[in-house]
Design goal:
Layout (H helix, E strand, L loop, with lengths): L1 E4 L2 E5 L5 H8 L2 H4 L12 H9 L6 E8 L2 E9 L3
Antiparallel strand pairs: 1-2, 2-3, 3-4
Helix pairs in contact: 1-3
Length: 80
């Protein structure tokens, strides 16, 4: 997936994003809204494995960029 509107771009996450995702997901201040006040405690390697299993048929992790700078992430899961 790739969508762009003005300065905002949403694209599929790749293994190149794993380090950034690890920083966000392990930061309790970022993750407390989702019920993880101490972060997820996830490794970059595990994130790479998760991203490798993403597909259009099952779901994807996505990166949100503003002025080409990563500012967030989101994901979706397809259900039949």
């Amino acid at each position: 997936m790739e969508k762009e509107y003005e300065a905002v771009r949403i694209r599929n996450a790749s293994s190149e994003d794993a380090n950034q995702l690890m920083q966000w997901w392990n930061d309790g201040r970022v993750m407390e809204h989702a019920g993880f006040p101490k972060g997820l405690g996830i490794t970059e390697e595990r994130i790479c494995r998760q991203l490798a299993s993403d597909s259009d048929a099952t779901g994807r992790h996505l990166i949100i960029l503003y002025n080409k700078v990563p500012v967030g992430e989101m994901n979706y899961t397809r259900r039949d």
